[in-house]
């Protein structure tokens, strides 16, 4: 009996192994081609980020990609999303990268993984955890022992999650990118030698291999930046290169005179900042370029095919000569072929019509969009005085204003308070403001300072026994360019009034807004009814609003914030992102899966509170192009 049992187990193991082996595929970069199961293929991919889409919608979005004609999906991996605190990892819910990749495989899509550790992506700090700035001896994005120690820990932990999903182990991951647009960084950091830059870049590729990634590696850069960004042994790919002849020339130069030729970022839209027009790209332009690639055997990846949303505090920022910061919108619609809410667009149809003429597989129809609802009026019941609330909270004392990082806080807001025994007046200057401040004297609003338009000073008058209060918002850490290494938030330099440095006896109250503010825990004297006469006293003061609404049916919707000032919104405890009256975004996407039948709760924090708000509503069509710069 034991003999037969043993034979049965052996046969079971053999058939299991055979079945697993039959499910395995092979992918190679070979003889100038992408080769899948021995057949040369062309990669037609779309960039889509798991963290910008509720996980309940992942499969729907994958089906959208298939319907457009794509055979692959690419995604960055956001280190700061998964390690919010040193050694504290989270791969659950909307962070479940492995599940995202598995769904892609089930839907017949190959996966291109872009783990960074730097990713840009208009994402907070380019994907780096904010707390890296507190590590002694750390120098970001260079051949630095401390930095490379942490990148190795990150990549090791990432491999535990997704390593078994490589095509070499039966999964859908066909390629892994090392670093990201490093050639751009090399061109911006001339203070670092090219030899050191190359040493660092090569070490990231080496770390990826050491932790276990064994699929083909690649780099991505602008075609004129390959010299600084390529790594021998990794396939160089070009971002934003429309000229086929130039693409082939530069890839040949750095890849032994052969392909394959790939545009790792083909832009069907573009990123958008607060206070600036939302870029629009014509569908016909993208359709023509798509056909140009396909007709010439070029592989490509639409960045973005579907942008999604920068929920919470995940949006990053850029900068230029005119603006010390250009914060990115909450919406990451990107004017992409698939809209923020997952809808088919004219651009989607144009691209699909081109692709289906060049592929030898049938294109399924696009799945139906999720139901939409409109809530004309959500009545708000309570409003709370944030400044009064902070007076009841424990504050951190300091001889000077402390940064967010010194306060061990990553995101949100900090209230800086300073008491003056003697009157003082003059020009208040905060050159180290990071990033946006509303200023109060004895609780009364007196002005705004703003890093976007380099407004760092204002006239001020503080009476005898008066209080100066400065509410500072982190509007997102810079995610691209050489300034990424200077990303502390809050007040990072001395505060001055005229030529007087204001030192000693500063109080800092931390307001991370990492969880929805709980009205039931607030002191009774800080909360009032919207309909009460005392509510009017809060005009001009940072305030929290709370309301409830009842739904018979749920569905996607867009919260209409065009009559509000500046702040954030929580729906059923989830931070759905920032709003700002300057636009161009005037609505906030609320996924239907975050709503529920029955009673729902909304909490709104408005930093400006220029009038008492009694209600808020939703609409079915987003407003993403309404610029109101006069309200800056």
Uncertain runs: 14-21
- Helix content, binned percent: 10-25%
- The backbone outline, from C-alpha atoms, is globular
What's the CATH superfamily of the largest domain, by name? Glycosidases
Sheet/helix structural class: alpha+beta
| CATH domain topology of the largest domain | TIM Barrel
Provide the residue-averaged pLDDT: 96
Please give the count of helices.
Answer: 12
Number of domains: 3
Total beta strand runs: 34
- Report the top-level CATH class of the largest domain: Alpha Beta
Give the oligomer, counting copies of the same chain as homo and different chains as hetero: single chain
C-alpha end-to-end distance = 83 Å
Main pleated sheet? 9 strands, antiparallel
Rg over CA atoms: 26 Å
Strand content: 25-35%
């Amino acid at each position: 009996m034991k003999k037969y049992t043993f034979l049965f187990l052996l046969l079971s193991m053999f058939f299991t192994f055979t079945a697993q082996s039959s499910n395995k595929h092979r992918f190679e970069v070979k003889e100038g081609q992408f080769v899948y199961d021995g057949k040369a293929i062309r990669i037609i991919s779309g960039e889509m980020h798991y963290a910008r889409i509720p996980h309940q919608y992942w499969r729907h979005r994958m089906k959208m990609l298939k319907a457009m004609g794509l055979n692959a999906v690419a995604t960055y991996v956001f280190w700061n999303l998964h390690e919010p605190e040193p050694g504290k990892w989270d791969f659950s819910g909307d962070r479940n990268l492995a599940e995202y990749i598995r769904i892609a495989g089930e839907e017949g899509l190959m996966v291109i993984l872009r783990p960074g550790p730097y990713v840009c992506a208009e994402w907070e700090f380019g994907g780096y955890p904010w707390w890296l700035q507190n590590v002694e001896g750390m120098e970001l994005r260079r051949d630095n022992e401390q930095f490379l120690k942490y990148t190795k820990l990150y990549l090791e932990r990432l491999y535990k999650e997704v390593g078994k999903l490589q095509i070499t182990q039966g999964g859908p991951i066909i390629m892994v990118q090392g670093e990201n647009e490093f050639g751009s960084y090399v061109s911006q950091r001339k203070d670092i030698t090219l030899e050191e830059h190359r040493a660092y870049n090569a070490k990231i590729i080496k770390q990826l291999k050491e932790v276990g990634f064994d699929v083909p590696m690649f780099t991505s850069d602008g075609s004129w930046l390959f010299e600084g960004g390529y790594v021998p042994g990794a396939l160089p790919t070009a971002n934003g290169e429309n000229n086929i002849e130039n693409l082939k020339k530069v890839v040949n130069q750095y890849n032994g005179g052969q392909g394959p030729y790939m545009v790792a970022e083909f832009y069907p839209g573009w990123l958008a900042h607060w206070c600036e027009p939302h870029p629009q790209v014509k569908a016909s332009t993208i359709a023509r370029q798509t056909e140009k690639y396909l007709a010439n055997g070029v592989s490509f990846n639409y960045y973005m095919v579907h942008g999604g949303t920068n929920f919470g505090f995940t949006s990053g920022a850029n900068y230029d000569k005119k603006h010390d910061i250009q914060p990115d919108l909450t919406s990451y619609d990107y004017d992409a072929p698939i809209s923020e809410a997952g809808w088919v667009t004219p651009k989607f149809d144009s691209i699909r019509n081109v692709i289906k003429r060049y592929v030898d597989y049938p294109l399924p129809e696009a799945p139906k969009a999720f139901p939409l609802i409109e809530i004309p009026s959500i009545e708000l019941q309570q409003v709370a005085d944030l400044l009064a609330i902070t007076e009841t909270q424990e504050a951190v004392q300091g001889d000077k204003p402390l940064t967010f990082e010194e306060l061990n806080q990553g995101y949100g807001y900090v209230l800086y308070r300073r008491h003056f025994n003697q009157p003082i007046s003059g020009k208040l200057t905060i050159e180290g403001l990071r990033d946006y401040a509303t200023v109060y004297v004895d609780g009364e609003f007196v002005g705004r300072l703003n890093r976007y338009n380099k407004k760092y000073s204002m006239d001020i008058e503080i009476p005898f026994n008066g209080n100066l209060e400065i509410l500072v918002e982190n509007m997102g850490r810079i995610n691209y360019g050489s300034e990424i290494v200077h990303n502390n938030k809050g007040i990072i330099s001395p505060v001055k009034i005229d030529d007087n440095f204001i030192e000693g006896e500063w109080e800092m109250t931390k307001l991370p807004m990492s969880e929805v503010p709980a009205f039931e825990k607030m002191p009774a004297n800080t909360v009032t009814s919207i309909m009460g006469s005392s509510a009017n006293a809060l005009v001009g003061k940072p305030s929290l609003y709370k309301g409830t609404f009842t739904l018979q049916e749920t569905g996607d919707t867009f919260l209409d914030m065009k009559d509000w000032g500046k702040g954030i919104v929580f729906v059923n405890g989830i931070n759905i992102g920032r709003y700002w009256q300057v636009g161009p975004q005037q609505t906030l996407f609320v996924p239907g899966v975050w709503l529920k039948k029955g009673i729902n709760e909304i909490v709104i924090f408005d930093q400006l509170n220029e009038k008492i708000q009694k209600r808020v509503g939703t609409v079915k069509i987003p407003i993403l192009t309404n610029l109101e710069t006069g309200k800056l």
